[in-house]
Amino acid sequence: MWLKILGSLMVVTAGACIGFSLAAHYTERPRQIRQIISCLTALKSHINYTAIPLPEALSLCTGGITGPVTEMFHNMATLLSNNGRLTPQEAMSQALRQTKKLVLNKPEREILAVFSANLGGMNREEQHKSLDMVHEQLSRIQYDAEKLCEQNVRMYRYLGVCGGLAVVIVLF
Amino acid sequence: MGLDILFKIAGVGILISVFHTALKQAGKEDMAHLCTLAGFAMVLLWVVQLLGRLFTTVQDVFKLF
pLDDT per residue over B3-20, tens digit each? Predict the structure, then answer.
């Protein structure tokens, strides 16, 4: 009997953990997009006013931000400074692949690819325009991600806990 | 037959209603209906077994074929 109760508790805990981790994915995505937007804004000022080399600007633009986004920008900066032949686009795609904790979906990855393709290949004004466009697109995606987060977070938490309870009831 | 099957069915009913509400609030009406249907099918399986037992008991009592 005690073994059964212990097993049931474990099943409910596992269900709750699954639900909460799925919900965490939805809360993490808008946060990371927001961080990317603030990094890009900082990068824009580094390109426009200080005119420092790209790897340095990429590692400086993450000031005050922690987490996978910082890791991604630092990875890109390291790749660019270590390997001179790498284009910013290749460096960005490699950095996106290397950073495991990023929870970005396909649209924002595509936008980042477009952004990195335009990076360093044009004059200052054009880069400014391109960064503005990327900023706008990311803001729209962030708005959508926040709406999705509001909808899904509570649902996944409820479903996780209740799914665990349902399995317990069926197996008990 | 114990009372435990009744409690089981009641528990599944409560949980399915919670599932339905959560899914409906998230705007997934189709999944909510699917979930309700799955719960109904599960409970129906248990009830059909019980009904089968009831019919065999009736057959035994009245000596029917």
Answer: 888 888 999 999 999 989
Decide: A127 and A118 in contact? Cβ < 8 Å.
yes
Q: Which residues of B touch A166 (CB under 8 A)?
A: 12, 15-16, 19
Contact A169 B11 (CB under 8 A): yes
Taking phi first (over 0 means left), then psi (-120 to 50 degrees means alpha), and beta for anything else, what does residue A95 get? alpha
State the pTM of this model.
0.76
3-state DSSP call for residue A105? coil
B26 with A170: Cβ contact below 8 A = no
C-beta atoms of B26 and A151 within 8 A: yes
How far from chain centre, in Å, is Cα A131? 18
Q: With a cut of 70, say whether residue B65 has pLDDT above it.
A: no
ipTM of the complex in this document:
0.75
Contacts of B18 in chain A (CB under 8 A): 158, 162
How far, in whole angstroms, is CA B28 from its chain's centroid? Answer: 23
Q: What's the DSSP call for residue A49?
A: I
